[in-house]
Write a structure and sequence with these properties.
heterodimer, A: 239 residues, mainly alpha, 7 helices, elongated, B: 219 residues, 9 helices
Amino acid sequence: MKQLSQRLLGPVTLVLLGLTFWLGLWLTPPDKTQGNLARLVYVHPAVAWVALYVSFGTATIASALYLWKRTRSLVMDRVAHCAMEVSVVFILLTLITGSIWGRPTWGVWWAWDARLTSTAILGVFALAYLALRRANDDADLRARRGAVFALLAAINVPIIHFSVQWWRTLHQGATVFTADRTLLIHGLMAWTLLISFVAFTLLFFWLLRARYRLEVLRGARYQVALDEALVQRRREGVR
Amino acid sequence: MIRIALLVAAKDLRIERRSRVLLWQVLPFGVMGLVLSGLALGPTHAGHSSAGPGLFYLVMLLVTLLMINRSQAIEGSRGTRASVATLGLDPAGVFLGKALALAVELWITGAVLLAGAVLVLHTALVGTLQALPSVVVILAALAAAGTLYGALSGGGQGPATLLPVLSLPGFAPLLIAGERSFSASLHGGAFWQWWVISLVALVAYLAMGILLYGVLEDS
């Protein structure tokens, strides 16, 4: 069952992504005020959702579980690392799609807006996390420092989330629900938006799984190379 | 924990007093940074005073990076870290002590640079004095965060380029809060909101340091 769901993850993701683009580009109507530009709503919010909450959240939870002695394991460290790498991709996509939306609506590709700036800072945090991991050769040291840094970086996520409420920003507020949980998008547009969220979330887990498998293979290869080097040194000692 | 914190802080400050690094290296660097900022803006009087808060905090961030490296390098010599570890000191106390020592050094530098901002960047004296509570809290938060990032970057033994990459994104919200509160106190805005935000950041960094510094020290 587990293997079947893992095998189905990729095809289901691709089908849902295709469905999102088909519905978003052809079947849904253009917006009354923003016209066809509003079709970015089927990409940008879903990508941002994955970047800020799903991938960064996964990295943070895995890091916290690594730091907790009862759940400390190599698996948690690898999940945190892989999720952070995928997070970088999604944060970059969030900023790019946001810029594409911002240029016609605000007149500029980039604005010193609270949400944009805090998202960019999160991106730098994610890159710094990867730099930190590369700077440490010792596996335990790397994992501990990475986990602590991921927790420190996670402070930025609530700042990004509430930035549109705390500051007067160019970025719009809640898109799907109002503060009193009233739905702002209806009909086919709402369904397309929902499918896009599911599709991009599944895309994250698909990429995470692929990256995790790669990390496991790399670890195994490193171990084999280490064993071979040890055997060679022993042979040299015998001679 | 408090006793250990005071011991560690006194030790770090004593080393600083004897070596005079703060006096002869860090303070001149900060003053030069402030003067160069003024030069970069050109001779416009109005531009200087409006950019003053931002430039002050930007220079303070650069000074903080220097001081963190210095604070971590104290234990950087061979065997020092291991011998300190054998003392069995409470890591939370060590963190608080190092953060306190760094905060004291930052407060001294901040006082000099605030005077420099009044003289060189023409920030209003009354507004600058009103900004003092927020400056004290922001610099304390920078010290707490900096101590954590310093330990993360390898405690004086890691690559020197790693510290800015790790710490500057974390310092950015403090820079924003500091600049906003300083500007508000200069131009008559509500600076207490930013002061409260800075205080929350200080408490958050202290709490995280107390909880997590031990993990970094163990490693």
